[in-house]
Amino acid sequence: MKIEQIYTGCLAHGAYYIESKGEVAIIDPLRETQQYVDKAKNENAKIKYIFETHFHADFVSGHVDLAKKTGASIIFGPGAQTSYEAHIATDGEEFNLGDIVIKVLHTPGHTLESSTYLLIDENGKDHAIFSGDTLFLGDVGRPDLAIKSDLTKEDLAGKLYDSLRNKIMPLADDVIVYPAHGAGSACGKNLSKETVGVLGDQKRTNYALRADMTKAEFIKEVLDGIAPPPQYFAKNAQMNKFGYTEFDTVLKKGNIALTPEDFERIANQEGALVLDVRTEQEFVKGHIPNSIFIGIHGGFAPWVGALITDLQQPILLVVPEGKAQETVTRLSRVGYDNTLGYLEGGIESWKSVGKDIESIESISAEELANRFKNDTITVLDVRKDGEYRSEHLEGDNVVHFALDYLNDNMNTIDQKQSYHIHCAGGYRSVIAASILKARGYDVIDIAGGYAALKNTDLPKTDYVCPSKL
């Protein structure tokens, strides 16, 4: 028996490759599936099953493409409805894989069809659970993502309580836990950085598995502090339920080198968004007018999903050399399938033919301190709410909202003002600055973010002041 976790840091997502006696099961595959096909071929094995723990909201799964490539059966838990061929399992149903068995444990709560897969080894022993978004290390899945459900989040939280206590907690302490996500995922609140654990540890340390916890207490604690889901979550869940364009087609369309002239022509004809994925330092120094920045080196796909509201938006790319295919791939993981090409030769080729370049003013923390004392300026802090509550600059001219909700706050920003923008270290502030600049706002980036600002003598507080403009 072989179990391999294939972890993707940008999505904080774990897919699983399970093999026994030449038969393979893939659990929660990524959008790009050739890696699983190649792996099975190298192992002289055949992919027999594709298990989905639920209709994922935070990424587009590769189950449909992988089934077409391999002939493997797609397995969902009870109650799932799809527009493509899939086997909808019953609670307790068992699937033979070589010498092992994978048993379906229906665990509704995160979503109604959510299921945990129990691996029973060749000796008949419960070996591991693949818990999807039902149980994470340190947390449990958020109960507010069901597709078109008439149940409230409180109803789903109650179902999750029952699922955990009736299906998972009775299992032995030495059962290994393989969750779908780790720290950084928006599918829970406080996920551990660890990506593999054992159930006994979770029973002892996970707040949601306290033995003396009532259902009412569970519902309150699970729902407390949940931020609204990113706008792309519901759209990705629909793609996972109803199908999508083949990944190979998406990649072929998007991974096309364009001359500056063709790049500009397509941008104008198609109304394409120019997405620059270089570093924030490079973008600040020079970029194509009206382009926006979301760096490939950061939490790229989730930020795209949070901030670009139309999955069908035509996109043109400015990428570091050799990063075009990776960028198109990572966009497709969250459902952005309408990439139309990338600028061949990058920003240098754009400049070489005399096309316009713009920049963003970027100042040091020390320079902001001087301006803060000597002038009436507005500072915009785009860190998350928890970061802001921990510590922030003090003053009536300090405005805060998280970058995640920039689009929701556009009507509160005064286009007649200049905004000095900071985050924690510089990545998110340049994203915000690029979007605001493209929409006609006057912005100044604070290099180094709050990490640099906290070393100045600017007034700071850990008290949450009402945001003002």
Please give a handful of descriptors for the protein shown:
single chain, 469 residues, alpha/beta, Metallo-beta-lactamase, Chain A, Oxidized Rhodanese, domain 1, 3 domains, six-stranded mixed sheet, 16 helices, 22% strand, disordered C terminus
Task: Report on this structure.
Strands 1-2-3-4-5-6 form a 6-stranded mixed sheet, covered by helices on one side. A 6-stranded mixed sheet has the order 7-8-9-10-11-12. Strands 13-17-16-14-15 form a 5-stranded parallel sheet. β10, α3 and β11 form a beta-alpha-beta unit. With 469 residues, it is α/β, with parallel strands linked by helices. It has 3 domains: 234 residues, Ribonuclease Z/Hydroxyacylglutathione hydrolase-like (Metallo-beta-lactamase, Chain A, 4-Layer Sandwich); 108 residues, Oxidized Rhodanese, domain 1, CATH 3.40.250; 101 residues, Rhodanese-like domain (Oxidized Rhodanese, domain 1, 3-Layer(aba) Sandwich). α3 crosses α5 and α7 packs across α11. Helices cover 30% and strands 22% of the residues. The C terminus is likely disordered. The protein contains 16 helices and 24 strands.
